[in-house]
Amino acid sequence: MAIYIGKRLALLLAMLFGLLLITFSISHVAPGDPASLAAGPDATLQMVEQIRQEYGLDQPLPIQLGRYLMGVVRGDFGRSVRTNHDVLDDLVTYFPATFELVVFSILIAIVLGIPLGILSALGQNRWFDHLARVVSVSGVAIPMFWLGLMLQLLIALDLGLLPLGGRLGLMSTPPQPITHLYLVDSLLQGQWRVFSDAAAHLVLPAVALCFPALASIIRVNRAEMIEALAQDYIVTARAHSISRLRTVCVYALKNAILPTLAMIGLRFGWMLGGTVLVESVFDWPGVGLYATQSAISQDFQPIMGVTLLIGTCFMLSNLLIDLTYAWIDPRTREAG
Amino acid sequence: MASLDESAPPANGWRERHAPQLRQLRLYWHTYRRSGSAMLGLFLAIVFLLLAAIGPAIVPYPEDAAGAVNLAQKLQPPSAAHWFGTDEVGNDILTRVVVGTRLSLAIALIITGVAAGIGVPLGILAGYRGGWLREVIMRVTDVFLAVPGLVLAIAIVAALGPSIVNAIIALSLVWWPGYVRLIESKTLSLKGESYVEAARLAGASTPRILFSHILPNCLSPILVKASMDMGMAILAAASLGFIGLGAQPPTPEWGAMISIGRNYLPTWWWYATFPGLVIYLTVLGFNLVGDGLRDVFDPRSRGR
Amino acid sequence: MNEQIPLLAFDNLRLDIDTFDGRLQILDGITFELAAHETLGIVGETGCGKSVTVRSLLRLLPMPPARFTAGAIRYKGTDLTKVSEGAMRRLRGNEIALIPQDPMTYLNPLLTIGRQLTDVIAARQKSEPRGTRLDRKGQRTRAIELLTEVQLPHPERLLDAYPHALSGGMRQRVLISMALAGEPALLVADEPTTALDVTIQGQVLRLIHQLVERLGLAVVLISHDLGVVAKVCRRIVVMYAGTIVEDAPTARLLESPLHPYTQGLLKAIPKLHGDSGKLQGIPGSIPNLLDPPRGCRFYPRCPLAMDVCAREKPPAVEAAPGHRVACHHYPGPPVEAVYE
Question: Mind telling me how many Å the CA of A236 is from chain C's nearest CA?
C-alpha cells in the first residue's frame, strides 16, 4: 500500500507541473500581451512597461517559464489590480469560505445520496424508487445558478425562512479564527448564536451547489447496488444465513461503493467549478466570487491563481479518492 | 424475417444490401421506444430543435428579437399577451427565449462537434498505437481533466476577452479531453477483440482497420456522450453567460438573460425564472435521450 | 421396526417460474429420497433443472417469479415448501449447507477469506445459546480449524488473503469449509468441480469423499458430468427437462441403464480403455419449457419412442429393487407418490 501511495504522490507532482504549464500557456496565448493583461485595462503604457520589466516579460519563453515556476515555488502568484493585494494573500483570505461551502455540500451529497441510493435499489419500482429516479435524472440538468436564484426567491424572499446571502447576518460577529471555518470555530468557542446563524447562511448555497452531485450519487449508487445484489456472492451469503443488514450494507455496498466513489470524485470537480456560480448568486465571500469579480474587471492574475488553487484541490481530492479505492479494493493496489 | 435461403434470387438494391443494418436500427428504435423517460427526452429535444429551426419565424413579437424598445410595456408580469412576461425594455421574454434557442443550438453543436472532432481521433490514435504517443496524449488529457472545466474555461475566456465566440472556443478546448479518455479505453478493448486481430493477421492496413472495425464500434459511446454533451454544453455556455463572460447583452442568450433578470428579483420574478426553466428542460431532454441511447446500445440496461 | 423417514424426500414437486415470455414449467413431478449419511448424485444436461431442484430445497430462488405449484419437499419430515422464511433461515447453513459452483464469483472479491468465513461462523453462532457463543478470537480459531479440515495449508495466512490471491481449487475448498461451519446434516454441492481444472477436480472430489466418510454427512452432488458423480455417490438420479427419468445405485446405473436417455448419456462418454467405437451424441435439444410436450418430455429425441410416449407421461416404476425408471418401456405399478 505504501508503494502505491508513493507512486500516486509522484504522479500528483507531475500533474501539478503540467497544470502550471497550462496556466503559463494561457496567459501567453492571449491576444493581448501578458504585460498588459497583468497590468489591467486601466494601466498606462508606462505601467505596462514597468510590469514588463519587473516580470521579465520581454525575455524568451523558456526563461519566462523558469521565472514563473520559481515565482510559484516562492509563493508569488502576481498581484491583483482590483484589490491591490498579492494574489496569494487574497486566496488565503477567501479560501476558507469556499472550503467550508464545498465540504459541507459534498458531505450532504454523500450522507444523503448513498443511503437514498441503497433504499431506492432495495425498493425497486415502488413509488419511492420512482421519485428518487426523477430527482436523480433532473438534478443534473438544473443550472446551479438558477437553482440558487429560485431558492433565494422562494425560501429567502417569499417565505423568509433562511437568509438571502453572505456568510453571517449583520448582527453577528465572526468567531475568533482558529480554523477559519465559521461553523467549526463558533462551535469550538461555544458561540451558539453565531453557529446557528452561520449554519442558516450555509444551507441555501450548499443545497444549490450539491444538488447535481446528490442526484448523480443517488443514481450511480442505486444502479450499482442493484448490480451488486444480483451477484453470486450474495447467494452464498444468503445460503449461509448471513443477516440481511450485513448482506446489504457490507457485502453488496462494498462492491457498489467503488463506482460511486468515482462519481463522487467527478462530481466534486463540478462542484469546485460551480462555486464560481453559486458564490456569485449568494455573495459568498469565497475564491469563486473572487474569480468572478476579477474576470469582470479584467483583472487577470487572480484568475490564474484561482485556477491553480482549484486545480490543485481537485487533484488532491482525486488522490484521496484513488487511495480510498485502493484501500477498499486490494486488486488495484497490485495492479499499480 | 430475412431469409437465408440460398435459392432466393439475390436482390441488389440499397435496401437489400443493408437489410441487417436496417433491421438493427429498427431493433434499436423498438428498444428505445420502450422507455418512457427516453421518449420524454426525445420529445423535449425535438421541441428544442423545432424552435431553433422555425422559432424566429413564429414568435409573437419579432420586432422585440431585433431589439425594439417599448418602455410602455416594460416589466409586465406573465399574461395571455406575454406568456413569459416582459423585460426592462419592454421586450417579450418568450420571444427572446425562442430566438435564443437557435443560438444555444449553434453553441451546443459547435462545442460538441469540435470536441469530438479533436478528441475522437486522438483517442483512437492513443488507444491503437500505444507506446510513447499514447503516454503523451493521455498525460496531457489527464492534466486538462484535472482542472474543473468551468474554471479552466473562465481562465481561457479571461485571457481572450469576454465574448460568445471566445466562450465557445474556451469550452471546446475544455471539452475534448473527455472524448479522448472515452475513446481511448474503448479502442483499447476493441484492439483485443478477435476480429481485429484476425484482420491484422490477414494483412489489412491500419487505416482500413481503424475505419472498418474500430470507428464503427466507437459510434455508440460517442453518440451517447454527444447527446448528453449537447445539453451540458448549453448549461456551461449559459453559466459563462451568467457570470458575464459569454454572450454579452443584448444577445438573447439564456444565461445572459438570467444574469440581468437577477437584478429584478423578487418583484419581477419572471425575468430570471423562465429562461432558467427553459435551460432545465432542454438539458433534461438531451440527458434523457443520452440515457435512453445508452440503454439501447448496452443490453445490460442498468436497473430497468 | 418402523421404516425410518428419509432425511430428505422430494415428493412429486412441481415448480413454475413466471417470466417475461410466459410461465416456465421447470420442475414437473420430482420425486426421490435421500437417507441420512447417504450420497446421491443428480446428473443431467444443462437446463434440465438440477440446479433449480436444489435451489428450491434451500429456497434460494426468488420466490415471487418462482412458485411451488404442487408436491412437497420433506426434510426430516417437515414440508419445506410450507415453512416461513425465518424457519428457512434457521435451516440454511445449520442443517443444509450449499457448496456453490464457481468459486470465483461466489466469494466476495473485496472481503478477506477470514472475514467471509468468520461471518458464516458468527451467523451459525446465533442458533447457539448465548452463554456458549464464541467471541472474535474463538471464531478465528474455529475458522482455522475449518480450513485445516479441508486440507488447506497455512490457514492462519489464508485468513488475511483475498479470494483473487487463491487458486480455483483453494477457493473451492474455502467454500466447502464455509459449508461445514454449521455442522450440517446435509451437504448440497452444485456443480462443485465444473469451474475447475481436471486435476483439481479429482482433488476436490477426493476431499468431499473423505469428509463424507469422516463426518457422516448426507450429500447431494449435482453435475452434468456423470464421471464426477460416479466417483463420490452411491446412488444416481438422472434428470431430463425437469423430470426424473432414472434413479438407481451407481454400479447398476453404469452397468445396465434402463432409460433410453441414460443409455444415450453413457454412449456419449469416451472410454479410456478398449474400443469406444463411434461416439454418439443425442440428437435434438431440450424441449421448450413454456410449452412442454404433453407426454414424455424425452419423446422428441428418443430413439425408442412409441405412440403412447407422445400422449401420456410415463410413471416412475420400480423396475428392479432400488432401481426406478420412468419410461413406457417399463410398465408396472407406479411408485407411491403422496401428492398427486
Answer: 6
Contact present, B and C (at least 3 Cβ pairs less than 8 Å): no
The position carrying cell 443534473 is: A140
Number of Cβ within a 10 Å radius of residue B104: 28
CA C78-C80-C81 angle, to 5 degrees, is 130
- Tell me the DSSP string of C165-211: GS-HHHHHHHHHHHHHTT--SEEEEESTTTTS-HHHHHHHHHHHHHH
State the smallest CA–CA distance between residue C52 and chain A in angstroms. 13
Q: Write the residue in A222, A223, A303 that is nearest to B155 by C-beta.
A: A303
Closest CA of chain A from B204, distance in Å: 33
Amino acid A106 reads I
Radius of gyration of chain B from its Cα atoms, rounded to whole angstroms: 23
Q: Considering only CA atoms, which of C117, C47, C56 is closest in space to residue C83? A: C56
C107/A254 CB distance under 8 A:
no
CB contact (8 A) between residue C110 and residue A242: no
B175 close to A (CB below 8 A): no
| Partner residues linked to C79 by β-bridges | C74
Compute CA distances C51 → B182, C70, C322, whole Å.
Answer: 40, 18, 24
Minimal-distance CA residue of chain C relative to A247: C119
B284 at the A interface (CB within 8 A)? yes
The helices-and-strands tally (H runs, E runs) of chain C is 11, 12
* Cα torsion C328, C329, C331, C336: sign: negative
**B-chain residues near A281 (CB < 8 A):** 262
All structural domains of chain C with their residue ranges: 257-340
Which chain A residues are Cβ-neighbours of B139 within 8 angstroms? 14, 18
Interface mutation target, options C106, C128, C146, chain A, most CBs of A under 10 Å:
C106
Residue A239 has its nearest CB partner, among C60, C108, C110, at: C60
Task: Judge contact between B236 and B153, C-beta under 8 A.
Answer: yes
* C221 contact partners, CB below 8 Å, separation of at least 6: C39, C40, C41, C42, C189, C192, C208, C228, C229, C232, C233
- C neighbour chains, 3+ CB pairs within 8 Å: A
Neighbours, chain A (3 or more CB pairs < 8 A): B, C
Give, for all 336 residues of chain A, the pLDDT tens digit: 788 888 888 888 989 999 988 888 887 776 666 666 666 667 777 777 777 777 666 677 777 788 888 888 888 888 887 888 888 999 999 999 999 999 999 999 999 999 999 988 888 777 777 778 778 888 889 999 999 999 998 888 877 778 888 888 777 778 878 778 888 888 888 888 888 888 888 999 999 999 999 999 998 999 899 889 989 999 999 888 888 888 888 999 999 999 999 999 999 999 999 999 999 999 999 999 999 999 888 888 899 899 999 999 999 999 999 889 888 988 877 765
Residues in chain C: 340
* Options 3.40.50.150, 3.50.50.60, 1.10.3720.10, 3.30.420.40; CATH of B50-301: 1.10.3720.10
C90–A236 C-beta distance less than 8 A: no
- Of the candidates B154, B235, B258, which has its C-beta nearest A303's C-beta? B154
Which residue matches cell numbers 486440507?
C151
A254 close to C (CB below 8 A): yes
Would you give the DSSP letter of residue B6? Answer: T
**B171 touching A (Cβ < 8 Å):** no
CA distance C51 to C34: 17
Chains A & C: contacts with CB separation below 8 Å: 73
Ranges of each domain in chain B: 50-301
Instruction: Tell me the backbone φ, ψ of residue C17, rounded to 5 degrees.
Output: -125, 125
3-state SS class at C312: coil
